[in-house]
Structure formats: C-alpha cells, structure tokens
C-alpha cells in the first residue's frame, strides 16, 4: 500500500506589484511591534533595504537590522542573529533578500523560539524543532529559492564542510510571504539566471521524486511552464515587469512543490558541493540539473515526457522515451542560453570528483531520486557535468 503523506503550508502568500508597501500593515496584523530585519550587505549597499524599512518608519514601527548574512549562511551567523534578536527585544522577524537572507531569518526564528544553537536543529527523525518560529515575514528580492514558502532552511557547517537542512515541519514556515516582483527589477543577469534555474530544479526534482503527490505535481508543472517561457526574457531584459512577475510566480510555485518532502540528486549534489566551495547555490544547481536529468529520465519516462511539454517542446508523434529525452535537451539548451558557469568556472576540479560524489551519496536527498543511485552513479554524473565545460 502507498505511504500516507501530508501536504501542509502554514504560510499566507501575498503576491503583486508594490506588495512591499504593505509590510508594516502585515507586521502589525501579526502582532509584531519590533521586528528584526534580516538581510545582507549587498542589499544594504544597493540601497534596496530602504524598500523594507521605509514602510516600517512611515508606520512609526521600531525595528532592528541584522545585515551580516552571507551566501551559504554558516552556523555562527544564525546564532549571532538570534542573540541580536534577543538583545534588541524583538518580537518578530522580517527576512528581506535572497534565499540566504530568508533561510537565515527562519533559522534565527528557530533558535529564538527553541533556544540553543541552530546546529541542534539539523533535520532528524524525530523532529527536533518543538516550537513554531516567532511571527515571521519573508520578502524575496530574487526569484528562485522560494524560501519564502518552503519548510526548510539550509545552513553551512564550516567545520564539517557540509550544508545541512533545518526544518521539514510547519514550525519553520514563514507566517507571511510578501512577494513583490518589482524588487527584482535591478537583479543582475547572472543572479537572475542562477535563481531562475534553481526554481526549475525545484519543480523538476519534486515532480519526479519518490515522494511526489498530485497537488505538488500540479504547481510544479505550472512553475516549469513559467520558467520555460520567461527565464530567457528576464535574463535578457531585466526591467521587463511581466517577466519578473512570471518568474516570481515560478519561484513560489516551484518551492511549494517541496511540501514537507525532499528533492533529488541535483540538490543532493549542489547542496553538498556548496559546503566544499562557497559558490552560488543557484548556479551550481543549474549546471548539475541537465546531467542529473540525463541520468534520471529512465526512471520516470512518462513524467519526463510531460516536463518536455511543459517546457514548450513539441512531443507530438514521439515515443515516451524520445519525448523524455526532449526534456533533457531542453534544459541543456536553457542552461547555455542563460550563460550558467561551468563547474570549472565555479572553482571545482575534476580530481575532486571522488570526494564530491561521496558527500553527495550521503546527502539525505539521495533517497528521493527517481532512479536508484550508487556512489559510482554520482561519479559518472559529475564526470558528465565536467564534460560540459
């Protein structure tokens, strides 16, 4: 008999142009009086933080700012942010930025509500998170990670050189996701490409994984359609409002496909490799996605044929196997069209393959992959990815 699975989303999602202007109203509705705004130095330098703080100031809402978030946020940053939350006597959190800022904001909430260090909440069964995070609003400034609606945070352990997951429970979900596509209008093209491909990877891996369910499947397919139609446009025309709007939807829907479950080999590889070299998660996942699909399509040919259709491929008259291969070809083309850097350009070396494969094989996302994996499978996928360089 099939395993009983649940699909729970505790986050209220509010999406639209100018949505950021309602930030103070949303915070007040949650009972927040003094939020901690969690962001990164790049947001501050770009002058984008004012988009979040201006509504708070206009509403005479006191707040504190923690702007020390770095890409692939480490344990120490989360724990420091939790101390600031406590010392500033905050009663809510606003995560403002990309996936790292929102992951950090949610992780700070975990520590604030449960105590200790974020390291204590590495995903495990039984679930170590006992209390829901404080009222938290996540406001994405990119379109890809979808952390505003996921039940996960990804944190880096610099001592073990790995990334680990915190979450898998509604207790870590943001209370409100405030999604304003206008915030991404000044996003650089490489970030647009990497985050957009990450959204596609979420959709494809969750659609084909061993935990797939009908409800997440439907939103995953919708996310694929948006990426297939609009990522190239957003990459080439950063100020195209319609493209930014559709890509923000793709990010949200792709992340919703996660539910409380997991992804597959592409994320197992990118997440584990991101603990070895501090590189953008989206670009790394993007470069690995098509080679993983090339390995995986034999495990779910009907679903891969449907992916090809969602990405705009003409599969009329094709066998299911030929149609499935079209999905792989489409993602290879998209990867090149949006100029995703190679593994070599990201700083990886071929002699690292055995080590990278070993770490990926131990990643918990391996078990969700639609085709059985061995250590050698990861070695071969990595070799195939390097061959694309």
Chain-wise SSE layout:
Layout: E1 12-15, H1 23-29, E2 35-40, H2 41-45, H3 50-58, E3 64-69, H4 75-87, E4 92-97, H5 99-114, E5 136-140, E6 152-157, E7 162-167, E8 176-179, H6 189-208, H7 214-236, H8 241-256, H9 265-273, H10 281-296, H11 301-310, H12 320-337, H13 353-362, H14 375-387
Parallel strand pairs: 1-8, 2-3, 2-4, 4-5, 5-8
Antiparallel strand pairs: 6-7
Helix pairs in contact: 4-5, 6-7, 6-8, 6-10, 7-8, 9-10, 9-13, 10-12, 10-14, 11-12, 13-14
- State the fourth-level CATH superfamily of the largest domain: Dehydroquinate synthase-like - alpha domain
**Averaged pLDDT:** 95
Counting H and I runs of at least 4 residues, what is the number of helices? 14
Query: Which oligomerization state do the chains in this entry correspond to?
Result: single chain
Categorize the overall geometry: globular
Which consecutive residue ranges, at least 5 long each, have pLDDT under 50? none
Helical residue percent band: 40-55%
| N-to-C order of helices and strands | EHEHHEHEHEEEEHHHHHHHHH
């Amino acid at each position: 008999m099939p395993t009983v699975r649940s699909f729970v989303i505790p986050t209220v999602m509010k999406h639209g142009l100018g949505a950021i202007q309602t930030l103070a109203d949303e915070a007040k509705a949650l009972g927040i009086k003094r939020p901690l705004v969690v962001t990164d130095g790049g947001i501050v330098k770009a002058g984008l933080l004012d988009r979040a703080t201006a509504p708070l100031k206009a509403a005479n809402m006191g707040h504190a700012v923690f702007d020390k978030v770095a890409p692939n946020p480490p344990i120490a940053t989360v724990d420091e942010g939790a101390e600031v939350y406590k010392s500033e006597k905050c009663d809510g959190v606003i995560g403002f930025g990309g996936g790292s800022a929102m992951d950090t904001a949610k992780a700070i909430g975990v520590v604030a509500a449960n105590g200790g260090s974020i390291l204590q909440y590495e995903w495990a069964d039984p679930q170590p998170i006992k209390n829901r995070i404080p009222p938290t609003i996540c406001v994405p400034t990119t379109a890809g990670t979808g952390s505003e609606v996921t039940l996960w945070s990804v944190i880096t352990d610099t001592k073990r050189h790995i990334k680990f997951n915190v979450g898998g429970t509604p207790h870590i979900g943001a209370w409100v996701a405030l999604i304003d596509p206008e915030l991404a209008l000044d996003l650089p093209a490489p970030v647009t490409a990497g985050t957009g491909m990450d959204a596609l990877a979420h959709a494809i891996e969750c659609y084909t994984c061993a935990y797939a369910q009908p409800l997440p499947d439907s939103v995953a397919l919708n996310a694929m359609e948006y990426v297939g139609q609009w990522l190239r446009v957003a990459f080439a025309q950063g100020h195209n409002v319609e493209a930014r709007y559709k890509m923000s939807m793709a990010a949200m829907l792709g992340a919703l496909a996660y539910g409380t479950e997991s992804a597959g080999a592409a994320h197992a590889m990118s997440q584990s490799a991101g603990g070895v070299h501090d590189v953008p998660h989206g670009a790394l996942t993007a470069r690995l996605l098509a080679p993983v699909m090339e390995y995986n399509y034999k495990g779910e040919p009907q679903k891969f044929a449907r992916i090809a259709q969602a990405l705009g491929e003409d599969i009329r008259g094709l066998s299911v196997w030929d149609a499935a291969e079209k999905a792989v070809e489409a993602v290879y083309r998209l990867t090149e069209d949006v100029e995703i850097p190679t593994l070599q350009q990201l700083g990886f070396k071929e002699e690292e393959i055995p080590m990278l494969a070993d770490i990926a094989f131990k990643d918990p996302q391996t078990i969700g992959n639609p085709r059985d994996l061995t250590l050698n499978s990861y070695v071969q996928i990595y070799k195939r990815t390097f061959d694309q360089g």
